[in-house]
Amino acid sequence: MSETMIALVTGANKGIGYEIAAGLGGLGYRVGVGARDADRRETAVGKLRAVGVDAFGVPLDVTDDQSVTDAAELIERLAGRLDALVNNAGISGEMDPGWVQDPTALDLEVLRTVVDTNVMGVVRVTNAMLPLLRRSASPRIVNVSSSVGSLTRQADPDIEIGPVMAAYAPSKSFLNALTVQYARQFAGTDILINAACPGLVATDFTGFQGPRTPEQGATTAIRLATLPDGGPTGSFFEDDGVVPW
């Protein structure tokens, strides 16, 4: 088995996910580029290899049980273990003008779709990859969240937290809560799991609105994916430190 550190990043074909893959690759990790779209996935792998990253494509739809199982089997064959899992794949769901999701008029199918990707998808992937992570000497899991999932910030009228997003924001609160439950379950093991907020990043996800670049948005996730033994677990971080729940 290779001693090179192995990482999987979901939703890694573009944006923040791509930059997380690039950053880990720059640190010497062999990186699995998880993505649904075959063309975009292979284009991302090619770009990463062109800059010296040891990257390989992982066909992965986080909402599909069989796809996730197949992805775990592929990593088993190609690498034999997993040292870092970054659950980055996520969707906002349909929005009204102004990036609003009005809770009083929310289509339950939109809510169901967002939760299936942003929450259940993380559980699917994490649990499928756990046997591979347990083979690592220092397994790390990072759930890419958002400060809009902070109930403390959402409930404070003096904090500008953006528009009402009744599907997306609660999905990140749910993800944060799950991160804590995983951390409790992993207590006493070598597995460290944390949530990361990338900030408001200019990508197609945000309509290219935001003061931060994808590379800047990737920094916290990269740091958490490479934590030393004894590092924090069950916490929520952004560049400036801990985000309140």
Compact overview of the structure:
The chain is α/β, with parallel strands linked by helices and 245 residues long.
Please characterize this protein's 3D structure:
- The protein is α/β, with parallel strands linked by helices and 245 residues long.
- It has one domain (6-242): NAD(P)-binding Rossmann-like Domain (Rossmann fold, 3-Layer(aba) Sandwich).
- The protein is built from eight helices and eight strands.
- The chain has helices at residues 15-26, 38-50, 65-78, 108-133, 151-155, 168-185, 214-217, 219-225, and strands at 6-10, 30-35, 54-59, 84-87, 140-144, 192-196, 236-238, 241-242.
- Strands 3-2-1-4-5-6-7-8 form an eight-stranded mixed β-sheet, sandwiched between helices.
- Strand 1 (6-10), helix 1 and strand 2 (30-35) form a beta-alpha-beta unit.
- The longest helix is centred in the middle third of the chain and has 26 residues, at 108-133.
- The chain starts with 5 loop residues before the first strand and ends with a strand.
- The model has no long low-confidence stretch (mean pLDDT 94).
Main features:
245 residues, 8 strands, SDR_fam, 8-stranded mixed beta sheet, alpha/beta, Rossmann fold, NAD(P)-bd_dom_sf, NADP
